[in-house]
């Protein structure tokens, strides 16, 4: 019985109209009520009408999503693949476990409810390829959204180009296009490389090797998957290297905070740690 229920292609309480269909419907009602009135794209009346059209579509999608959210989840393997595809629009990634796939499917369901949200862009983009490590969507202009992505994996240029093309295919699909965006751009983050050089003032030379290893490991771990558009902050580097047994941390490089643009990602190069022993006064 459950398997028959899960094999349904769709489950809808209402048949939602698209944003364009709702807008056309509202325009028709407006014209019928005020046949002599003229609506301009930039007018307050048109902006209000478009907002109502979006809300109508959102409401219908919300009702259907709530229904899909209560579906049985005790499936695995191919049955999970089929139900996740039918109800959540999710396709299993290579080597993805049942639990991870089910969690991502639920995430896609939540994202579909908030069409055009940052979570929506992030979820759909990360679903393209397991090598996509970070996604940063931002509003780059009126009605325009730019989605910036970065792969933390060692991937050659040809494969990165393929990932870029696949993301565009997913995000530009008419069924997935956010209602509030008239233009979308997909950009691979530009790498901004930087090296770190710090000097540790330590209490005991006996701890030198251990402190150097721990400080370098802490810095590398923190910057291993640094977020797109996030600056390189000297105070953070200082905090990472200020371990027990260290009296003072001096960051020699970079000399100032490294500003990172919206379409850039900071990638750590070399880490150099030097030490000096604190002299008794």
Model description:
By secondary structure, the chain is an alpha/beta fold. It has 3 domains: 1-113, no CATH class; 132-188, no CATH class; 192-277, no CATH class. The protein contains 9 helices and 6 strands. Strands 1-2-3 form a 3-stranded mixed β-sheet, covered by helices on one side. A hairpin with a 2-residue loop joins strand 1 (132-141) and strand 2. The longest helix is centred in the first third of the chain and has 26 residues, at 44-69. The model is unreliable at 1-10 (pLDDT under 50).
Short structural summary:
The chain has helices spanning 2-6, 19-33, 44-69, 77-88, 98-113, 118-126, 157-171, 208-223, 234-241, and strands spanning 132-141, 144-151, 183-188, 190-202, 246-253, 264-277. By secondary structure, the protein is α/β, with parallel strands linked by helices.
Keywords:
alpha/beta, 3 domains, 3-stranded mixed sheet, 6 strands, elongated, disordered N terminus
Succession of helices and strands = HHHHHHEEHEEHHEE
Q: Helix/strand/pairing class, anyone?
A: alpha/beta
N- to C-terminal distance: 82 Å
Biggest sheet descriptor: 3 strands, mixed
Spatially, the strands of the biggest sheet line up as 1-2-3
Beta-strand residue fraction: 15-25%
Q: In percent, how helical is the residue content?
A: 40-55%
Give the overall form.
elongated
- Unreliable spans are 1-10
Radius of gyration: 26 Å
Q: Helical element count?
A: 9
């Amino acid at each position: 019985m459950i398997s028959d229920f899960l094999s349904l292609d769709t489950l809808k309480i209402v048949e939602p109209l698209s944003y364009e269909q709702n807008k056309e419907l509202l325009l028709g009602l407006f014209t019928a009520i005020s046949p002599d009135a003229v609506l301009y794209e930039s007018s307050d009346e048109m902006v209000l009408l478009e907002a109502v059209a979006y809300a109508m579509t959102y409401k219908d999608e919300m009702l259907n999503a709530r229904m899909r959210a209560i579906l049985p989840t005790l499936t695995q393997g191919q049955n999970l693949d089929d139900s996740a595809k039918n109800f959540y629009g999710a396709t299993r990634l290579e080597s993805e476990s049942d639990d991870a796939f089910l969690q991502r499917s639920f995430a896609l369901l939540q994202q579909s409810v908030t069409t055009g949200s940052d979570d929506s862009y992030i979820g759909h983009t990360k679903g393209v390829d397991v090598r996509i490590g970070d996604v940063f969507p931002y509003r780059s202009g009126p009605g325009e959204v730019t989605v910036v992505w970065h792969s933390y994996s060692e991937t050659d240029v040809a494969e990165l180009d393929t990932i870029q093309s696949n993301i565009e295919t997913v995000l530009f699909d008419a069924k997935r296009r956010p209602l509030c965006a008239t233009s979308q751009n997909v950009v691979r983050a530009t790498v901004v490389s930087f090296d770190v050089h710090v000097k540790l003032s330590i209490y005991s030379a006996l701890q030198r090797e251990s402190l150097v290893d721990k400080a370098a490991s802490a810095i590398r771990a923190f910057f291993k998957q640094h977020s797109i558009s996030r600056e390189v902050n000297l105070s953070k580097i200082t905090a990472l290297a200020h371990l027990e047994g260290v009296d003072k941390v001096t960051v020699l490089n970079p000399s100032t905070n490294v500003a990172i643009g919206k379409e850039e990602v900071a990638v750590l190069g070399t880490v150099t740690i030097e030490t000096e022993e604190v002299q008794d006064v």
